[in-house]
Amino acid sequence: MCRHIAVLGPQEPIGASLADPPHSLVRQSWAPRRQRHGTVNADGFGVGWYAEGDPVPARYRRAGPVWADLSFADIARVVRTGALLAAVRDATAADADGEAAAAPFTAGPWLFSHNGAVAGWPDTAAPLAALLPPEALLRLAARCDSALVWALVEHRLRGGDAPGGALADTVAELAEAAPGSRLNLLLTDGTSIAATAWGDTLWYLAVPGGRTAVASEPYDDDPRWTEVPDRTLLTATRTGVALSPLKEPCP
């Protein structure tokens, strides 16, 4: 369920990453090649990007399928950026949240997406929600599992945690509280990317010259795409990618 991508690199139109490649995120909304859960990602989409000199990203989100949005096609053609995060959504369960449930979620310089599902939602996650301060719960953009996952990550970021640590600790908590969850998380501040592979596919492409893409699946057949092993934390910049194992929850 869901497909997402983050890209760091030179300034280029959004569509160069999201629409132009033969197996782009737009195509993955109806014809993903490696999606293990669900088949069509038509329950909303979004893209966040950074303008040069401004650390706070802009967002464009809609509740419907990306292929039906002609305004997005224009934006993708003319808006240029050196960093973005985008996602197409296949909802875990029916909801009335509309575009509020579509990634990317955001706060300050951050853009975030969750590809997966919290098992047993919402009952299994209730104890974790109770650990958040009231203001964090009041900031929830939607009632879906991904919005709560973002609240847990955001709470750690606001507390000073590094991006990779915030994702890793959140995954550990959720995996213990809700065994069987799929927790592929993706986070960027426009200068770095952090991501987790936990229960679904994750790939990265590092191109000489300062371009790095991290995605649920490759958007083309470039042989340099590398699959990230399950239970792995990825951290990346424009010049390098690092992988480290994630801790399994205690039995």
Automatic annotation (TrEMBL):
Its EC number is 3.5.1.118. InterPro entries: EgtC, EgtC-like, EgtC_Actinobacteria, Gamma-glu_amide_hydrolase, GATase_2_dom, Ntn_hydrolases_N. Keywords: Glutamine amidotransferase, Hydrolase. CDD domains: YafJ. SUPFAM superfamilies: N-terminal nucleophile aminohydrolases (Ntn hydrolases). GO terms for biological process: ergothioneine biosynthetic process. Residues 2-251 form the Glutamine amidotransferase type-2 domain. GO terms for molecular function: hydrolase activity, acting on carbon-nitrogen (but not peptide) bonds, in linear amides. Coiled coil: none annotated. It catalyses: gamma-L-glutamyl-hercynylcysteine S-oxide + H2O = S-(hercyn-2-yl)-L-cysteine S-oxide + L-glutamate. Pathway: Amino-acid biosynthesis; ergothioneine biosynthesis. The keyword Protein transport does not apply. Catalyzes the hydrolysis of the gamma-glutamyl amide bond of hercynyl-gamma-L-glutamyl-L-cysteine sulfoxide to produce hercynylcysteine sulfoxide, a step in the biosynthesis pathway of ergothioneine. This is Gamma-glutamyl-hercynylcysteine sulfoxide hydrolase. It comes from Streptomyces telluris.
